Amino acid sequence: MTPEEYIKLYEKFNSGQCTPEEEARLMEFQDDFKFSETDGLPLNEASKQKRLAIYTRIRETLANKHQKKSFRMMWGWTAAAAVALIFSAIFLFQKKQPENTIAANPVKKSPSKPIKPGRNTAILTLANGSSITLDDAKNGVLAKSGKSSVKKLANGLIAYSSDDAAPPAGEPARNMVTVPRGGQYSIKLPDGTMVWLNSSSSLSYPVAFTGADRSVTLTGEAYFEVTKNKHLPFIVHAGGVNVKVLGTHFNVAAYEDEKDIKTTLLEGSVNLSNSKSSVLLIPGLQGIAGTNQEITTRPVNVNQVVAWKTGYFIFKDDDIRGIMRKISRWYDVEVEYEGNVTHKTFGGIYSMNKDINELLKGLELTGLVHFKIEERRIIVMN
């Protein structure tokens, strides 16, 4: 199978038109994909090495053929983009590098402690102002407020429960979970709603939902699986945008260092509104509130949007600055830029549990960008 045939077949797979035989061949493309001069590219030894390195990374990415269907769809466009990337990288490599140059420049780094990936870590701030570092806390009841209590479960999840079916009188106390850079955490709210918080994010919420709605306030990014309640809508307040639902699965990204607030719907329906506009989302759509307050929508690959929740970085047509913002939050590093850094886009998939050097080396294989690590600072260069 030639690379061009492979990409066409993956496009057919993504549209749901592949036969079982074609799908099987697609998943075994590494056996058909030949690295030789017969595919129309004159290869010197250095470019062969570089092409093989990229190919090996793709094959490792797709090695697990038993992933569930939704993630196989995700692998689809990622691999196709990566294969296309092979040829652009080789073209640039052959154009820029002399014959005897090594295949790729290694990530330059100064002696320092290794930069480890993020972990489950968060701080719970109670209504009285006291705080609890959740990763250090023992399992069991952490605090009580009236009839409500918050517990840390054996799997690290924190969950709320009430000792009385009757709602407490007056305005309920509010707690806040804050996830630092280099962390993630999940929480079960008093109504049973599950929330996964990404790095550099926080969620403020009442210890009991007693009013006309279930309102929470988010900064950063979170994925919600809302418990259905036709009488009490669930509302997320995020950077001037209100996300209103009855019961659904969706992702909200409202980082202060991003210009847009993005809400992506996976299941159910949500209403997005702000001071200027209002839209209704259906599954597969993303609502974008820009700096002008207008809310627009677009179809997206939802698996790409929520990949962080399952431990992956997935890039598709992402520029290097957007990629490095995600890397900075997860690995808790500072990023600087030298020179006129490329505005070209990148595609690929990387495990968030890997060493940062492996991720950066993968990006360097394109030949479009290079990195230097100094302590906890990453310098991005052309």
Automatic annotation (TrEMBL):
Location of the Protein FecR C-terminal domain: 312-380
Q: Which InterPro entries match?
A: FecR, FecR_C, Ferrdict_sens_TM
Q: Which UniProt keywords apply?
A: Membrane, Transmembrane, Transmembrane helix
Going by the entry's taxonomy, the superkingdom of the source organism is recorded as: Bacteria
Q: Where are the transmembrane segments?
A: 74-93
Boundaries of each FecR protein domain copy? 178-271
Question: How is this protein named in the record?
Answer: FecR family protein
**Source organism:** Mucilaginibacter angelicae
